[in-house]
């Protein structure tokens, strides 16, 4: 898959396109991606996704924006797995936010991406102040000569699939529901960074991944690490010792004890054990971690 960022150059060819944040790349997003891939084959053009960094709500209201389900690299990998040939990551800034609906279509979709056919949800809004709606998009598509299709909401087992529903499930520790909506188990990936070595001094060494943005869940979890096996993980701000301003994912592997600095780990969440808590000193913290590790081992013993 070809990924481009920032300013658009003149397109090398036409494309079948869809647009959105694609946070989580859930079943609804995959239905859009699969429709684009199928139409691109029919038209003999490239399949393309236009997405944004940061997400528009993060730009306009950073303190009120919803938690990110998926980091950009993971989102791109999931879109590639759906068969998408090209993704353009547009920088959402003041200039981009000020584009009128007409300029968005003319400058971005036509001149920048070479759209021949577009699929979006019927509630799609675009342009400055979200002033463009699907009816305007239909008129602009007729004027500019590209095809347009409205994608219906996707439901799974009677529930409408949405990123907000996934966030709600994760916040409650309902990983079965999150998996139904996503179509895959929820995971976070990132590169292991150096920490304070507190976990090792307590007898539970951890691989630390700085999350940069608040994740949709917090607490202590049973996890599975790709290439690392079973583990127990903490997601939060480490309130007892050395609190951090930016959320941290700390993973203790139950069956491995080796340096993972610089490695990129994919951590899949299986069960919530408890909320994050502030303990009165290192001894009760060590005891709590020991209980967490024991519960995680019992979980894997029961579930093979």
What would you say this structure looks like, in words?
The chain is α/β, with parallel strands linked by helices and 304 residues long. It folds into two domains: 2-160, 3-Layer(aba) Sandwich (Rossmann fold), CATH 3.40.50.620; 186-303, Elongation Factor Tu (Ef-tu), domain 3 (Beta Barrel), CATH 2.40.30.30. Helix content is 34%, strand content 26%. The chain is built from ten helices and 14 strands. The strands form three sheets. A six-stranded parallel β-sheet has the order 1-4-3-2-5-6, with helices on both faces. Strands 9-14-11-12-13-10 form a six-stranded antiparallel β-sheet, with helices on one face. It has a two-stranded antiparallel sheet with strand order 7-8. The longest helix is centred in the last third of the chain and has 22 residues, at 282-303. The radius of gyration is 22 Å and the shape is elongated.
Tell me the layout of helices and strands.
Blueprint lengths: L1 E4 L9 E5 L7 H17 L2 E8 L2 H5 L11 H10 L4 E6 L2 H4 L3 H12 L2 E7 L12 H11 L2 E5 L3 E2 L2 E2 L2 H9 L3 H8 L4 E5 L6 H4 L5 E4 L8 E7 L3 E8 L11 E6 L10 E11 L7 H22 L1
Parallel strand pairs: 1-4, 2-3, 2-5, 3-4, 5-6
Antiparallel strand pairs: 7-8, 9-14, 10-13, 11-12, 11-14, 12-13
């Amino acid at each position: 898959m070809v990924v481009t960022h920032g300013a658009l150059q003149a397109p090398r060819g036409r494309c079948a396109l869809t647009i959105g944040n694609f946070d989580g790349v859930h079943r609804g997003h995959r239905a859009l991606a699969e429709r684009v891939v199928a139409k691109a084959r029919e038209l003999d053009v490239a399949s393309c996704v236009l997405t944004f960094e940061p997400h528009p709500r993060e730009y306009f209201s950073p303190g009120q924006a919803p938690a990110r389900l998926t980091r950009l690299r993971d989102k791109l990998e999931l879109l590639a797995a759906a068969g998408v040939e090209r993704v353009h990551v547009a920088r959402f800034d003041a200039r981009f936010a000020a584009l009128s609906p007409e300029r968005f279509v003319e400058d971005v979709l036509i001149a920048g991406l070479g759209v021949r056919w577009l699929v979006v949800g019927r509630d799609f809004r675009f342009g400055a102040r979200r002033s463009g709606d699907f009816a305007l998009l239909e008129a602009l598509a007729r004027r500019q000569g590209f095809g347009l299709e409205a994608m219906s909401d996707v439901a799974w087992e009677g529930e409408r699939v949405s990123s907000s529903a996934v966030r709600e499930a994760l916040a409650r520790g309902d990983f079965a529901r999150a998996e139904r909506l996503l179509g895959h188990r929820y995971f976070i990936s990132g590169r292991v960074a150096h920490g304070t070595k507190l976990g090792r001094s307590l007898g539970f060494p951890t691989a630390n991944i700085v999350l940069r943005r608040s994740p949709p869940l917090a607490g202590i979890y049973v996890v599975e690490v790709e290439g690392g096996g079973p583990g127990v993980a903490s997601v939060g701000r480490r309130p007892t010792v050395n609190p951090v301003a930016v959320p941290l994912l700390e993973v203790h592997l139950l069956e491995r004890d080796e340096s993972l600095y610089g490695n990129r780990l994919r951590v899949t969440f299986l069960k919530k054990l408890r909320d994050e808590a502030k303990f009165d000193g290192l001894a009760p913290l060590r005891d709590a971690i020991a209980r967490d590790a024991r519960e995680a081992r019992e979980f894997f013993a029961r579930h093979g």
